[in-house]
Design brief:
Length: about 80
């Protein structure tokens, strides 16, 4: 019974959302115009921080490899 109720409520929510999207289209477009630049800034900053941290991590791994003593197989 609860699954059927969930399906019905989901369909009602979709229908109401579509009607409101059509009725408020101009406001929806304005909201997108406001949100998209902010999202681009946040996503760009996140990507930049991720790439910088990856570069630092690679550098640290290279430093650890260079400072570790070589094993017998690496000396041959």
């Amino acid at each position: 019974m609860s699954n059927l109720l969930g399906i019905v409520l989901g369909l009602v929510a979709i229908l109401v959302g579509l009607v409101l999207l059509i009725a408020w289209w101009s406001m929806f477009v304005k909201a997108l115009m406001a949100v998209v630049p902010i999202l681009l800034i946040v996503i760009g900053a996140g990507a930049l921080l991720y790439c910088i941290s990856e570069i630092k991590s690679k550098k640290a791994m290279e430093d650890v490899k260079a400072s570790s003593p070589k094993t017998k197989t690496e000396q041959k």
